[in-house]
Amino acid sequence: MNTNKLWSADFVKICLSSFFLFFSFYTLATALSVYVTNGLGGSDTQAGLSMTVFVIASVLLRPFAGQLMTKYGERKIVILSLLLFLLFSVAYLGVFGYAMLLLVRFFHGGTFAIATTSTNTTAIGIIPEHRKGEGISYFSLFMSLAMVIGPFVGLTITTHGGFTAMFVLCAVCSLIAFVLGASTRRQTREQIAAAAAKEQPRIQNKGRLHWRDLVERKAVPIALSGFVVAFAYSGLVTFMSVYTHEQAIDQYASYFFVCFGIMIVLPRPIVGKLLDRVGEHVIVYPSIAVFTIGMLLLSQADSPAMLLASGAIIGLGYGALLPCFQTIAVLAAPAHRRGLATATFYLLFDLGYGIGSYSLGALATSYGYSAMYMLCAIIIAFSSVIYYILHHKRKRLTGAGGEPALGSSKA
Predict the structure, then answer these.
(1) How many CB atoms lie within 10 A of CB 165?
(2) For the whole model, what pTM was predicted?
(3) What are the two backbone dihedrals, phi and then psi, of residue 377, each rounded to the nearest 5 degrees?
(4) Phi, psi angle pair for 42, to nearest 5°
(5) Tell me, what's the pLDDT at 202?
(6) What is the pLDDT of residues 12-42, one digit of tens each?
(7) H or E stretch including 387?
(8) Separation of alpha carbons 81 and 338, rounded Å
(9) What is the per-residue pLDDT across 47-97, written as a single tens digit (0 to 9) for each?
(10) Are 71 and 174 in contact (CB under 8 A)?
């Protein structure tokens, strides 16, 4: 087997599986509020609650994903979680009331958390060790593409085809994700298998579950930086349509996300290679600066040109930052606990997103959306301080402590 090969058949399949998984999620996330208000006759608050329930389930169950993979095997959890995600995607077709919708959303959110964590872990295992930054960057690119295409398709299909057509499309995408994910066979390295074998008896013989079985401690520092970024990023996704309406440029809101998506996609291959060759710090600090500038520009956007420019700048900064943080989290953990590291990172990211949506909404109600985005820019800039204290400074003082280092492909 060529251990240097990145684009193997299995890596392509797990990337496409992740794309269709996230495509289904973003299509529903965008159009579900319309379904609640128009299809079920609910209020805006009820529409928001349908998303909150999904996030709550994701936060509650994601910590168990790594534990389940360790105990029952990575491949089994990938197949089972994708199958359950498919079944709950189909369940939307049978929803007959708001209470039932919330129930489906809860279970759908839980299966989504486990499915995304397990497929992510599988992809990380397939990527050659010295190309982790590049491989994770490409893998997350498929998620970014889904984030760009999904909302557009969701709103378009509900406008022209109705809610049933949207649910059918999401079910079909979930089926494709399941087929691709189930057919992926990770080539597990001997050292990973040996480490996992040593870990297994400890888990099986222990009388009670310990927090270390649910959270990877070494991934927490960078995950806290991700929490702060997600807190600020939530204001972008949740309130963009309201903000652009307030600024009388709401017809350009969709184009904002097009510019945002393009600038996530275009530089991604370069970012991944730089991450492996020169290290994370060279990527993180400029990305935070660019992200901050984009948010400041957005807070003052009163014309289409400023709005679209801010979307492109934010996309460039955020698009480079997220895969970098994720790569750091993965490489901070021992090889057999990288599933837990992934789960830990996204657990805190989800928490930041959920808390940010509520907190920033309350702030915007009192002080306006322009002030809210100004605060988001300050919060993003502050994430550089957190990153320096919790990761950069600590790594410099310990000399990386024997942990796998980025920017050392020759090692």
Answers:
(1) 12
(2) 0.74
(3) -65, -40
(4) -90, 175
(5) 47
(6) 999 999 999 999 988 887 778 778 878 888 8
(7) helix 369-387
(8) 18
(9) 767 877 888 898 888 888 877 887 888 889 999 999 999 999 999 999 988
(10) no
